[in-house]
Amino acid sequence: MSDPLTTRKPEPFVMVVFGASGDLTRRKLIPAIFQLWCQNHLPESAAIIGYSRSEKTDESFRAELCDSIRDSLKCQQHIIDDAAWETFASRIFYQRGAYDSPEDFAALGQRIKTLNVERNVPGNCMHYLATPPTAFADIITNLNSAGLARKGQSDPWSRIVIEKPFGTDLQSALELNRIAREAFDEEQIFRIDHYLGKETVQNIMVLRLANSIFEHLWCHDYIDHIQITAAESLGVGSRGGYYDKSGALRDMVQNHLMHLLCLVAMEPPVTLTADAIRDEKVKVLRSLRPISQQCAANGVVRAQYTLGEIDGQETPGYLQADNVPEDSNTETFVAFKAHVDNWRWSGVPFYLRTGKALPRRCTEISIHFEPIPQILFNRPPAGPLRPNVLTIRVQPDEGIALEFQAKAPGPAMNIKPLEMDFGYRESFGQAPPEAYQRLLLDAAVGDATLFTRSDEVQAAWEFVTPVIEGCACEANNVLQYPAGSWGPKEADELIEADGKQWRLK
Questions:
Q1: Is 41 a catalytic residue?
Q2: 470 or 373, which is more confident?
Q3: Catalytic residue among 41, 194, 225, 256
Q4: How far, in Å, CA of 321 to CA of 450, rounded?
Q5: Residues 6+ apart with CB under 8 A from 484
Q6: How far apart, in whole angstroms, are the C-alpha atoms of residue 482 and residue 485?
Q7: Choices 3.30.870.10, 3.30.420.10, 3.30.360.10, 3.90.1170.50: CATH for 196-371+448-496
Q8: H or E element in which residue 298 lies
Q9: CA 118 from chain center: how many Å?
Q10: Which residues pair with 367 in a beta bridge?
Q11: Packing angle of the helix pair 258-265, 199-209 (nearest 10 deg)
């Protein structure tokens, strides 16, 4: 795994953020870069160029970002250091341009050269695509035409960070990979998914491979099933137009849930290098039992949220959201069962679900161990007892908990389930850093461990695309669930048919 943040500082570089006027830049990227700056993880001469179509000056762009950073850090219970911000802001610049204009990219190249001279930067450049996916191909092509991609050149380096979604199906992902590989070498391409920057996700390997009590239990001999839930309490909000073109399968399953599944199910890598770890993740994806189109149409639970109540507030249904067609069949909830057909996981079902407008925001992985035999304590009157469960909380309240059985004090044999619970904030005296901090620093130093390789993208789409196509054949089978519930009853029936229950209810 990557070295701790405190041991690394990248070479001087210029970072170009495409989509500088967007929500991602304001809420996540610039606050994360500012935090890295305040923690002395960036070189003094680093510079940032925001690039978008809007008319702005350097000064107006800096003022906008200052307001955004104040709001972002307030949410994280931090107070902005005005002196630090002024120093940092002097390193931020703005370049107006279109994504499909070679002339504008030539002007960008000239601006980068000027900054390289003024700030004594040796030509290193990181291009961050925080734009709608429809702009990815144009940006990559024009970077190449302007000589800013520098394929095959490592000194000075040029890297590109591409936000999800990487394609909308297998064919579009293959085409985007082709375009990217024409301009950049694979080692220069960093396909980012912020879930992989979360401390608890990174800790999955440590939990398994740095503790002898877990790894030998991590197989079909001892594990009954595994659940992965990624729940969001918010609806689509103002993103209805974008979301309706993707849905939960493309927006969450193909990337976030597949990454979590891979890290839980992968074999130990031969080393902790980026390629060794990613090799094992690809093996998991290639071991997934295919879900045929017919099975997807009948066995994958898809649903939309309707009018409901979350935290005492009335929440309109998905079809009432801005820019969502009134006859939309796009799913906001998905639940399905997957199998990893290899020796380690033979016969162990993986139950995955994700949805919007659920009761609370929570992403967790729960490992459900086999029940103990129906003798001694696990029969009446003490039993049946709940099997042991190891829970990895990805967000919020990041941590790990192990549920086990213990005798309650008193003369009777009264057995109660208890939890040993480890929380990051309590154990380490601080909350884990924002995921984008870790990922941006990794990209700047060239560490690709937490980024997705092209064959991993392809393997994930090879599994998910038939599911999408099968569900599209039965467009009218989208169910409904009220906002504030845990999804449709059919999601419960999916897991209850195997004699199990969702842990989060």
A1: no
A2: 470
A3: 256
A4: 34
A5: 308, 309, 310, 315, 357, 358, 359
A6: 6
A7: 3.30.360.10
A8: helix 293-299
A9: 37
A10: 226, 390
A11: 20
Distance of alpha carbon 491 from alpha carbon 83, whole angstroms: 52
CA 505 – CA 492 distance, rounded (Å): 10
Same fold, 5-191 and 196-371+448-496: no
Q: Look-up: residue for tokens 């950073």? A: 69
User: What superfamily in CATH does domain 5-191 come from?
Assistant: NAD(P)-binding Rossmann-like Domain (3.40.50.720)
Q: Taking the model in full, what pTM does it have?
A: 0.90
CA 128 centroid distance within chain? 16
- What type of residue is 155? D
Q: Tokens representing 433? A: 């850093």
Share of the chain above pLDDT 70, in %: 95
Q: What is the pLDDT of residues 325-344, one digit of tens each?
A: 988 999 999 999 999 999 99
Tokens of 427: 């154990």
Helices (H), 216-330: 240-243, 247-248, 258-265, 274-287, 293-299
Phi and psi at residue 303, to the nearest 5°: -155, 160
**Three-state SS for 185?**
coil
Q: Is 280 helix (H, G, I), strand (E, B) or coil?
A: helix
Assign 2 a pLDDT band (cuts: 50, 70, 90).
very low
User: Domain limits of the chain?
Assistant: 5-191, 196-371+448-496
